[in-house]
Amino acid sequence: MGRNGDTVGLVVVDDDYIRDINREYRGVDRSTDVISFAYTGDGGAAVDSGDVMGEVYVSHETLLRDASDRGVSPANLFLRIGVHGLLHVLGYEHSTHSDARRMESEEKRLLLEHLSQTEVEELF
Questions:
Q1: CA distances, 78 to each of 34, 35, 59, 64, 98 (Å)
Q2: Between 94 and which of 88, 100, 101, 123 could a Cys-Cys bridge form, CB atoms 3.0 to 4.6 Å apart?
Q3: E-strand spans in 14-107?
Q4: Any alpha helices (H) in 27-96, and if so which ranges?
């Protein structure tokens, strides 16, 4: 997927900024919690970007609102959506049911390295 030493930038922004990105790159005129960009060529190797493999943008405003609405820790939700964005950079998608199950399974596996089973279950 990537090479050792490849990096992914994590950029924390506000709702207005992520809404502009969402509108420009996805044609969706609303804020969202996370948007990812993969800067890879065939085979997942970083191209023309140094060793930067991609970027993950997270809206702190949407994150805080969603955490409050769901009654979960903002820090844990930040970790989950960061992992979600990272997996998109690595080529995971959730456009089909089987892809979504595969991606969610990998999200949970990675989150369990940092959170308890109960905390992970609260996030899904």
A1: 10, 13, 10, 9, 25
A2: 100
A3: 34-38, 52-59
A4: 60-70, 74-89
Per the CB < 8 A criterion, the answer to whether 29 and 19 are in contact is: yes
Structural domains in the chain, sorted by start: 7-122 (3.40.390.30)
> What pLDDT shows up at residue 46?
47
Quote the pTM value: 0.86
Tokens of residue 122, six digits: 């609260």
Residue with tokens 């955490």: 67
In the block, which residue shows the tokens 């969603």?
66
For 54-102, write each residue's pLDDT tens digit.
999 999 999 999 999 999 999 999 999 999 999 999 999 999 999 999 9
